[in-house]
C-alpha cells in the first residue's frame, strides 16, 4: 500500500490509498515538514484504513509515497492502464544529474528517528535499469553488500546526496537507516573492499562546494571507462591522506577513530536553492543503532519497512526467527486457523524459510485430503515469481516424465493479516526433505538403490524444468521432498494426530515482560517430522517431488548474476563471471546434489564454508581458475601463488595439516564412506560411468558442462539410473 503526500507537495498519484482531507488545492506548501501536523489524510476506503494525520504520517512509522507508475506490490507488475504523470520537478532533477535515465516511477520513503529500510535486493521487476536514490533531510547511513556477499560498504549520506546503482550493483543487498548518535566504529571494526567502489557512484549536490570536482559528462554514464579514474580522483580530493593509500588496490581497515569514508563529486550549487525546501527545518534527532539489527546478510525481504526490535525469551532451536513477525514479515498462524473461507484448516507445521512458513492443512472440500500451505511474508520477492513459474510448469503440455516429479500448484490466494497482505500457495503434501532425512539418520547415507532412484528422478525433473525455459536456481537436498505414504496422504486431522502426534508448541514471551501484540503468535509451533532417516528409505519410499521455485527464473527474460543455492553448491561463475547465470549453473548444483545423495557430503564442503573457502576447494580440485576469474579473486594470495599452487605458511600447515584433496581423492570418498557403514558400493563398471557423469557436470567453465539432455542420455542414467527409477515405479504400484 502507498501513502501519498498532500496534493500540493509532490504530485500525489490518484491511485494511492489516501487523499487530502480537505480542499486545499489553492494552498501551496513548501514541504511535508511545514504542513499542519493535525491535518488528516482521509482513506479512500474507510473500511480498510483509518484516517492518518500528518504528524502520524511523518513521525510514527516509516511511510512511503509512490510517484508516477503505480507498482503493484502484490503481483509485482505495473498496471496496464496509463500511469499518473511523474512529477516534472523531480524528473528535471534526475535528468540533470543522470541524463541517461528516463524517470518513470519512484518511491519516496519518509523516515523518523530509528526507522530502517532493512536489507533487501531490488529484484521485484524483471529489468536491469539502474536505481537512483536521493537523500533529503537528516544524515543517514547507506549500507551496500559486496557482490560476493562477504562484506558491506557503509556510506554516510547527507541531504542532497545521490547514489546510483547500475549493472550488477542494482541487484545486490542494501539498506538504509537514519544516522545514529553512536560511533559505529566503537563496534567491531569494518573492512572496506573496493568492489562497491567500482560499482557505485556517489554524488553530493548540496555540500562542500570547496571540494567541487569538474568532471566530463561521459564520466556519469553507467559502465563508463572514466568511472574508476573519477572515483580515484574523488578519493584523492576528499579523503584524509591517511585513508587514501590502497583504497583502489587492496582492502583497508579503518581504526575506531576514523570518520566515515565517502566519495564526493559535486554538481552546480544552483540545484540547492530549488530543493532546499525538501529539507526538514527542524532539529535532527537520531536514535542509537545496534548494527546487528540492521544488517542481516541472509535476509531477503524486499522493502521491509519499520522493523521494531522486540526481544523474546529463549525458544529452543528448530523454529523460525521470532523477530520476523513484524510488518512485512511472517503471518502469525496457529493450529486450527482456517483459510480460503474455511476450506483449509491448519493441522501441523511442516517448516519455515526466510520468506515463508509452511503448514500441513486439511482440505474440507476434498474430504480427507492433506495439502501444504506455503504462506509468504508480505514483502517476499519470491512469492509472485514462484507462483508464475509453478503455473507455467503446471500448464505445460510436455510429455517428458519429469513433469510428474514437480510439485503441483493446487490453489493460490491472498489474505490480509496484522503484518500485511500475504500470498498463499497450496500444493500437495509431502514428507520430509532429503536434507532432513540425512540429518536424522545414523550415518547420513542412502541405500544404493534409493540413491539411484532419487538421482534419476531429480535429473528427469530438471530436464522438464529446463525444457520450459526455466532455471531452478536453488537446487539442494532441502528442496527434494519424499512423497507421503498412502496411509497418511488421505486422512483427517484427528487421524493424522493418531499417526504422528499432536503439534508441539511453546508459549512466546517478550523479554521485557510486556504483553504480545497481534503481530506474533501466542505460541510457536515446532515442525512435525513426517518421514524416515535416510538409512531407512527403501526403494518404494524413494518417490520424490522437486519443490521451492522461489528463486527460479526465465533465462530469456531475467538476468541474474548471483546464485541463491547454498554456498558449497553454488557454481563458481556466480562470483566471477560477467555473463548472467543460466542452465549450466543448475547443472553444477545438480552435480553437487547427486554427489551428496551417494556419499555423506557434497564434493566441496568446508567450515565455516565462506565463498573464499569453497573457491579454494575448487582450485584444489580442478587447478587454477580461468584467467578472467583468477584476476578478479582479490584474496587469492592468501592461499595460492600466481601459478595456482598452494601458498600456505609452514606454521599454518603444521597447525591445520595439509588438507588439500584432489578430484580423485574426493570421488574415492563416496565409496569409502559407504564401505565404512557396510553399505553397498559401486561396482567398477558403475563407478566409472558415475564418475564420467559427475566429471561432465562439474566443470569450471559453464560452456563446457554437459546439458541436462546430455546427462539424461549418459551411460550411467541409461544403465543404472533409469532402470532403478522404473523398478521404483513398479514397487509403488505393488
Automatic annotation (TrEMBL):
It is an enzyme of class 2 (transferase). GO terms for biological process: regulation of mRNA processing; spliceosomal complex assembly. It catalyses: L-seryl-[protein] + ATP = O-phospho-L-seryl-[protein] + ADP + H(+); L-threonyl-[protein] + ATP = O-phospho-L-threonyl-[protein] + ADP + H(+). Residues 344-717 form the Protein kinase domain. InterPro entries: AlkB-like, AlkB-like_sf, Kinase-like_dom_sf, Prot_kinase_dom, SRPK. Keywords: ATP-binding, Kinase, Nucleotide-binding, Serine/threonine-protein kinase, Transferase. Its EC number is 2.7.11.1. Residues 1-45 are annotated as: Disordered. GO terms for cellular component: cytoplasm; nucleus. GO terms for molecular function: ATP binding; protein serine/threonine kinase activity. Pfam families: 2OG-FeII_Oxy_2 (PF13532), Pkinase (PF00069). It comes from the Eukaryota. This is non-specific serine/threonine protein kinase. The lineage of its organism: Eukaryota, Fungi, Dikarya, Ascomycota, Pezizomycotina.
Amino acid at each position: 500500500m502507498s501513502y501519498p503526500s498532500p496534493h500540493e507537495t509532490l504530485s500525489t498519484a490518484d491511485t494511492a490509498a489516501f487523499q487530502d482531507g480537505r480542499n486545499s488545492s489553492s494552498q501551496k506548501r513548501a514541504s511535508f515538514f511545514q504542513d499542519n501536523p493535525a491535518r488528516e489524510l482521509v482513506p479512500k476506503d474507510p473500511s480498510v484504513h483509518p484516517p492518518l494525520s500528518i504528524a502520524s504520517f511523518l513521525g510514527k512509522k516509516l511511510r512511503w509515497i509512490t510517484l508516477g507508475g503505480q507498482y503493484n506490490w502484490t503481483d509485482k507488475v505495473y498496471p496496464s492502464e496509463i500511469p499518473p504523470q511523474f512529477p516534472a520537478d523531480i524528473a528535471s532533477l534526475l535528468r540533470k544529474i543522470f541524463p541517461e535515465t528516463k524517470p518513470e516511477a519512484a518511491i519516496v520513503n519518509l523516515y523518523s528517528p530509528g526507522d530502517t529500510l532493512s536489507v533487501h535486493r531490488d529484484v521485484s521487476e524483471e529489468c536491469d535499469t539502474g536505481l537512483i536514490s536521493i537523500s533529503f533531510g537528516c544524515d543517514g547511513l547507506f549500507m551496500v553488500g559486496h557482490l560476493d556477499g562477504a562484506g558491506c560498504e557503509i556510506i554516510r549520506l547527507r541531504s542532497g546526496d545521490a547514489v546510483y546503482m547500475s549493472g550488477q550493483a542494482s541487484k545486490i543487498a542494501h539498506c538504509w537507516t537514519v544516522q545514529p548518535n553512536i560511533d559505529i566504529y566503537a563496534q567491531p571494526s569494518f573492512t572496506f573492499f573496493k568492489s562497491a567502489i567500482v560499482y557505485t557512484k556517489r554524488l553530493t549536490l548540496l555540500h562542500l562546494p570547496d571540494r567541487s570536482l569538474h568532471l566530463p559528462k561521459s564520466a556519469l554514464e553507467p559502465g563508463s571507462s572514466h568511472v574508476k579514474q573519477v572515483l580515484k580522483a574523488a578519493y584523492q580530493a576528499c579523503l584524509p591522506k591517511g585513508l587514501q593509500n590502497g583504497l583502489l588496490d587492496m582492502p583497508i581497515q579503518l581504526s575506531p577513530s576514523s570518520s566515515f569514508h565517502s566519495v564526493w563529486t559535486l554538481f552546480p550549487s544552483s540545484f540547492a536553492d530549488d530543493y532546499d525546501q525538501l529539507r526538514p527545518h527542524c532539529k535532527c534527532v537520531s536514535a542509537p543503532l545496534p548494527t546487528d539489527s540492521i544488517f542481516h546478510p541472509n535476509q531477503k525481504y524486499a522493502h521491509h519497512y519499520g522493523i521494531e526490535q522486540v526481544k523474546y525469551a529463549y525458544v529452543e532451536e528448530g523454529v523460525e526467527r521470532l523477530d520476523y513477525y513484524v510488518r512485512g514479515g511472517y503471518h502469525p498462524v496457529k493450529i486450527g486457523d482456517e483459510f480460503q473461507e474455511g476450506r483449509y484448516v491448519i493441522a501441523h507445521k511442516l517448516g519455515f524459510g526466510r520468506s515463508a512458513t509452511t503448514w500441513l492443512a486439511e482440505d474440507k472440500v476434498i474430504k480427507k485430503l492433506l495439502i501444504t500451505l506455503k504462506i509468504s511474508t508480505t514483502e517476499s520477492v519470491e512469492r509472485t515469481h514462484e507462483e508464475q513459474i509453478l503455473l507455467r510448469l503446471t500448464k505445460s503440455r510436455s510429455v517428458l516424465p519429469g513433469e510428474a516429479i514437480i510439485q503441483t500448484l493446487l490453489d493460490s490466494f491472498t489474505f490480509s493479516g496484522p503484518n500485511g497482505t500475504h500470498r498463499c500457495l497450496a500444493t500437495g503434501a509431502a514428507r520430509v526433505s532429503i536434507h532432513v532425512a540425512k540429518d536424522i539418520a545414523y550415518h547420513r547415507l542412502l541405500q544404493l538403490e534409493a540413491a539411484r532412484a532419487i538421482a534419476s528422478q531429480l535429473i528427469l525433473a530438471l530436464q522438464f524444468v529446463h525444457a520450459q525455459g526455466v532455471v531452478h536456481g536453488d537446487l539442494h537436498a532441502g528442496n527434494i521432498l519424499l512423497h507421503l505414504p498412502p496411509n497418511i496422504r488421505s486422512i483427517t486431522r484427528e487421524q493424522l494426530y493418531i499417526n504422528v502426534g499432536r503439534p508441539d508448541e511453546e508459549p512466546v514471551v517478550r523479554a521485557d515482560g510486556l504483553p504480545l501484540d497481534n503481530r506474533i503468535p501466542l505460541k510457536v509451533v515446532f515442525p512435525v517430522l513426517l518421514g524416515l532417516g535416510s538409512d531407512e528409505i527403501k526403494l518404494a519410499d524413494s518417490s520424490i517431488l522437486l519443490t521451492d521455485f522461489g528463486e527460479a527464473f526465465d533465462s530469456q527474460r531475467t538476468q541474474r548474476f548471483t546464485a541463491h543455492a547454498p554456498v558449497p553448491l553454488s557454481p563458481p561463475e556466480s562470483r566471477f563471471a560477467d555473463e548472467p547465470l543460466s542452465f549450466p549453473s543448475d547443472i553444477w548444483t545438480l552435480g553437487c546434489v547427486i554427489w551428496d545423495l551417494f556419499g555423506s557430503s557434497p564434493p566441496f564442503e568446508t567450515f565455516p564454508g565462506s565463498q573464499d573457502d569453497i573457491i579454494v576447494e575448487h582450485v584444489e580440485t580442478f587447478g587454477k581458475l580461468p584467467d578472467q576469474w583468477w584476476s578478479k579473486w582479490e584474496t587469492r594470495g592468501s592461499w595460492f601463488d600466481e601459478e595456482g599452487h598452494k601458498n600456505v605458511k609452514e606454521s599454518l600447515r603444521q597447525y591445520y595439516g595439509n588438507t588439500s584433496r584432489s578430484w580423485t581423492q574426493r570421488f574415492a570418498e563416496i565409496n569409502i564412506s559407504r564401505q565404512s557403514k557396510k553399505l553397498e558400493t559401486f561396482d567398477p563398471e558403475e563407478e566409472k560411468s558415475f564418475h564420467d557423469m559427475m566429471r561432465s557436470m562439474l566443470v569450471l567453465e559453464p560452456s563446457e558442462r554437459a546439458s541436462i539432455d546430455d546427462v539424461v542420455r549418459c551411460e550411467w542414467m541409461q544403465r543404472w539410473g533409469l532402470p532403478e527409477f522404473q523398478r521404483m515405479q513398479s514397487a509403488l504400484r505393488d
